[in-house]
Design a protein that fits this description.
The protein is globular. It is α/β, with parallel strands linked by helices. The chain folds into 2 domains: 4-214, DHBP synthase (Alpha-Beta Complex), CATH 3.90.870.10; 239-344, Rossmann fold. The protein contains 11 helices and 16 strands. The chain has an 11-stranded mixed beta sheet, sandwiched between helices. A 5-stranded parallel beta sheet has the order 14-13-15-12-16, sandwiched between helices. The structure holds adenosine monophosphate and magnesium ion. Adenosine monophosphate binds next to strand 6 and strand 10.
Length: 345
């Protein structure tokens, strides 16, 4: 299949709408990452998403809407606390899970009795949903397991020949996927951190729980509340180790290592300005105290490491506060949970 590259024009947005209405797949820009979209009400169209990505069948999809009114028909009911959350953070990078209605095909919910819904803030995304005339199911537009794409080129790298079209809407603003919160439990529970922080959720919801999968690895045999969080994810080809500690400790450790190892293929993933001090080729992902820039640049940096041929990567550990929780959560999965903590007893 030839994959069309569409531009951010009214004509091409209308074309994307036609393809989606006809049961095809179009990768679309959003303010978080590029999504691989299909008509959310058409089970056969949604099934093609799983095939194109190589996504495990038990991992449900997020449904994207362009008007608050569309939400009603997708869920069994909208409780007051859900509406309050939507009023506070929609349109925006927040996904809300509620019990689903009968219009949601099993392919979308992966057999669960809930559905995840998001109202994106990017105007182009909403125009594409309007052009399609239906809500769009869309996971991130990467091959399953690799870093999520944050620009049309990275989307094309993964999806060329597998889908009908990619619409180029420029670089994504946030660069990590949406915050996912479920309101299908008695106490709201954060399943995936994103640009809307736990503090911001607490402001509207009061108490929230943070799922064990957010900052750690689920123990063998524990059922994942968010199926996507159990997989190794976001990974470049290189093997990543997170070094938790100061820049000094990082330098000492990597100096020792580079004397032993093959430094050509050993890289550092570090903060801006540290390149001169670290004795390895470096790819940076923002200043140490700037979580928002780190979220914008992390997935790009992971792909850059692959492009430069990295085989082994030592990563500086980001702060896990606020938006940083999303950055740490993604890097931890990219590293397959491999962390050396210099301050561990
Ligand atoms: P992605 O589409 O790649 O952004 O991933 C969507 C994330 O939302 C995955 O981690 C899914 O497991 C999670 N998700 C989607 N729908 C549900 C649901 N109904 N219940 C729990 N998690 C969900
Ligand atoms: Mg994904």
């Amino acid at each position: 299949m030839e994959t069309l590259l569409l531009q951010n024009t009214d004509k091409d947005i209308a074309r994307a709408g036609e393809i989606l209405r006809g049961g095809g797949l179009v990768a679309i820009p959003t303010e978080t990452v590029y999504g691989l979209a299909a008509n959310a009400l058409d089970g056969a169209a949604v099934a093609k998403i799983f095939a194109a990505k190589g996504r495990p069948q038990d991992n449900p999809l997020i449904v994207h809407i362009s008007h608050l009114d569309q939400w009603k028909s997708l869920v069994s009911e909208i409780p007051d606390r859900a509406m309050a959350l939507a009023e506070a953070y929609w349109p925006g990078p927040l996904t809300i899970i509620l019990p689903k209605s009968d219009v949601i095909p099993d392919e979308v919910s992966a057999g669960l009795d809930t559905v995840a819904v998001r109202f994106p803030s990017m105007r182009t995304t909403r125009k594409i949903i309007d052009a399609a005339g239906v809500p769009l199911a869309a996971p991130s537009a990467n091959l399953s397991g690799s870093p999520s794409p944050t620009c049309a080129r990275h989307t094309m790298d993964d999806m060329r020949g597998r889908i009908d079209a990619v619409l180029d809407g420029g670089e994504c603003n946030f660069g990590v996927e949406s915050t996912v919160v479920t309101l299908a439990t008695e106490i709201p529970r954060l399943l995936r951190p994103g640009a809307v922080t736990p503090e911001e959720l607490r402001e509207v919801l009061g108490e929230i729980e943070i799922d064990d999968a957010v900052l750690g690895q689920l123990k063998e045999g524990v059922k994942a509340a968010s199926p996507g969080m159990k997989y190794k994810h976001y990974s470049p080809k290189a093997e990543i180790t997170i070094l938790k500690g100061t820049l000094d400790e990082f330098v000492k450790y990597t100096e020792l290592h580079s004397r032993e190892g093959d430094t050509d293929k050993t890289f550092a993933l570090c903060f801006d300005g540290e390149e001169e001090i670290i004795p390895l080729p470096c790819v940076t992902y923002g200043r140490e105290e700037d979580s928002l820039t780190q979220s914008h640049r992390l997935f790009n940096a992971l792909r850059e490491l692959d492009e430069q041929g990295a085989e082994k990567v030592y990563a500086r550990c980001p702060s896990a506060d606020g938006v940083g929780m999303a950055v740490y959560n993604r890097l931890l999965r990219a590293a397959g949970f491999c962390v050396i903590d210099f301050h561990d007893e």
